[in-house]
Amino acid sequence: MSAPKKRWTGWLILAVKLAVFGVLCWAIYRALESGRSQLSQHVWDVEPGWLVVSGLLYLLGILPSALFWHRVLLRTDQQAAAGEAVRAYYISQLGKYVPGKWMVILLRRMLLTTGQVENTIVAASVFFETFTMLAVGAAISAMVLLIWQTHQTLLIATAAGSVILLGAPTMPLLFEFLLRTLRVTRLNATAGAKFRQISWSMLAVGWAGIAFGWLMQGASLWATLRGLGATEAGPFAELPLNTAAVALSVVAGFLSQIPGGLAVREWVSAQLIEPVYGESMAIVSTIIYRLVLVVSELSVSIILYVAGWRRMPRLASGWLKRTEAHSNAPE
Question: Of 136, 142, 128, 159, which Cα lies nearest the Cα of 210?
Answer without folding.
Answer: 136
